[in-house]
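Handoff note, outgoing to incoming analyst
You'll be picking up this chain. Sequence as last confirmed:
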Amino acid sequence: MLITSSKTFVIFLLATCCGMASSTSLNTLTPAAVNSTAVGNSTLSLPETFECPNMDIRNECENLAHLENCTVITGYMIIVLLSTNDTCDYSQYSFPKLREVTDFVLFSKVTNLTSFRDMFPNLTVIRGRKVFLNYALGISSMDSLERVEFPRLVAIQRGHVFIGSNPKLCFVNKINFNRLTLAPGENHIFPVTDVKCPAIDPCSGCNSGYCWSNMRCQKFENDNVVKMQEGIQHCDQQCLGGCDNHGCYVCRSWTDHGVCVDECPPDKYSSADYLRCYTREECIAKKLAIYKNTCVTSCPGGYFKNNITQECDSCTGVNNCIKVCHPRKDSNPFWIHTLEDVEYLNGCQICNGSIVINLRNRIDESELMKYLADIEEIVGHLKVYKSPYLTSLKFFRNLRKIHGKPLELQHYSLVIYKNKNLRELWPVRKGFELINGGISIQANDKLCNRVIRTYKNDVIHDRSLDSIQISDQEVLCAPAKLNLFVEVLSHRSIKFTWSKDETFEQVEIIYRPIDPNKPFNDDSELDTNVCERIFWQRDLKFTQDLDKNNTHYFYKIQNLAANTKYACLVKTFGQDDAAPAARSEIKFITTQVNVPPPPLIRITKKTSNSLTLQLSYENHEDQLVDFYMLEVYEIPENQHLLDQRDYCIDGVKQFSDYHNEDYDDCCSRRLEEAEDDLFKRQLEKEFSCSLDNKKYCTNNPLEDNYTNNANALLTKRLEHAETNYTIRSLERYQLYGIQVQACNRAGCGSFRIINERTNYSEAADRIYDLTACKMSHNNEYRVHFKEPKNPNGYITLYAIHFRYLNASTNGTYQGHMHCVTRSEHQRNNYLYQGYLNSTFNQAAVRVESFGHLTFTDWVAITNCNGVQMVYAKTKLAGRSSHGWNIFLVFFILGAAGTFLWVCYKRKYWRKIPQLRRYLPVYANLQSLRRDTSNDEDRQILVDGFETVRFHNSPDDDKKYLVH
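Most recent structure output, in case you need it:
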């Protein structure tokens, strides 16, 4: 019966304590005088002691007065069921003299008690000679308890601590219970509920860092855990918990009438139950039996108590001396879950029932030997199961007979099942017999098969009913050590090497992958539980099947996982149980790394001009990556192909809307997506780059001849820690291809490619130059606007809206809409001209792109007169023919040439002397004059406008007439 909750603990406590109370007298107090003259060293003496028997305090708080004057309780102390209804003042009850309890201390359902500090200020040791279940200190169901405070408590010498449900309890996590008790890790401290505990550091000023509360530090003078050190050097080693001018607070072991001693003197009788030295008269007065030179509560097996002499006499030839024990409840087995259950069988020779051992907590096996070694006969069956701390069953060394009434599972008298650390059974006494049934020994990881078979053969029983662990559950029996060397050959293979001299007829090569981040128990290859044994790979070979040289055998293992840690060992043995065997220690190796697989790419954030990507792996491949190579490509739209589609007739759905799908369409789509994902994963698996498939590896960034792709918009190397990266300066609602490959010292793997669009911008498709007018003489409307400069991807259409809005119509209006595609609007030189049947006074445009839908503000429709008319006609003329454009170009060129000729002829440049030297015309003219012969005619400009021609004569070539 395991204690799994504080409620169960309290129920068991109350049921057990009721039986205890009936046999306890609160009025029997025994003073023990101090003989100070007998003490050579004053530090070994004790203050005057006053021994009290078992204390069971309950129902009325006035019963606490029975603890007055007690310095030691030679038994247990139970304080339970004090429901005071605010009428009990605990401040009146303080017991500073109490320093020692030889058995256990229990508290439960004591109302309004907030702390033990003032009630038991000097309690120093709880010896736990007898325990409650496994516990020497139990506290549960204390509704008002706020602090567990025993300021001087330094030792619980046997047993453990149970702290159950106490809703207001604080500071429990600041108490080191493992240092307080004998066996660390066996205390059961239930989580404290979320209460309003003080926020200050409760152990401020405590050297150890542990405390009972914010006012009391925890002392550590328990030599069960550590040697006595600082602060008590002046005390003798026999003291426990320190000393003062009066002597030791408590004796570490034996107390002889107020004196601490190593052992009782020859004229005294030692009481192991109370750690006291008594005279013969004191033993008898306490109703204890005298066994040799000790005082015992009951005579051991083979002895009985002589009621006249009060001594334990031998049972030689006396049948009624045999101690027969019965279960606590009829027809139930002897359940052994706790140390208390073990104590119940103390001295039993015949157990009238079955014994079932299921020890979930650690118990010193010397305790089992002490209390169970007298058992000789079991009327029922014996079952030992799921006791992980048991290593031996030798405490059954005196067992002679198991009757098997009843049998376990109708077949077995002896069952030993799933005890993972059990290594040893017990030496079988000659004639040991199972009267009915067989033996079942299964799933004991460390129990040697040869030992099991030897044991089975020594027991007299029906062997046809046996069920014994075999095959993969076999464990070698104390094998010799085989020296094994394991070499890593590649990312896929390893090689075992061991000496021929250490090898027998058969060899078993055993290996398995293990988690590198978890500890691995390497006591043997089968120390893991049965469920994990399936992970071991085994190759059984004969020596003639192995590769070898003159001194060693070799064995290669192929097709291992890359960069994986393996546990490896080799066993070798003969053909039968008597043959020798050897086994290597477990060797741990890690295969070489492979080219890393492509990482998973996830877009975590995107804007209209950036994409943020995250790189990750499902398992631990990221540990193999040294860096990533990122390449980004722009995937442009095929505008020529898009312009061929009339989006006014065949529109585009702006966003995917899965919510409107019916059930069949949704399921069909998801099946298609799953099939597509499976296809891509299989493609990656079959044709991915690795050291086994180098033909699928492209150019490697680690190689010297690597060149970046010229078509890439961005090429970036990301270090191993850069698993988040933002790609910036992108176009709005543009589709980009992102590919990433991971690289390490072995090379670079395959690319992982995803395609993703940037977000749209609400302002990108806006039109800022919208104008609209109407011809005055007819219903011709003209609307002009340019295409947005940086739209959200390809613009599919423009929807031109007209309306007639009149304030007197209360917001109702007559409207009209005309749709033009982007290419059509461009061909019309961004001008829409149309004849409408109605009159409208406002116009607006709805721009639909791949990324967004934008509606412009309404603009007033004006009359197409004046500048607007000329502008409109010019646009219209320009739209109708390109001939006018050609004419205009030649007209401008002609006018410019005429102007320059006139300037030359009238010599306007002469009026600007500063420019004459810069004009090539002047230089040419001077040269012309110098080279002209006398026969040539000359002409000059007269009065700035008339040209007069002269004829040069040879006689007077420098004379000329000017009018």
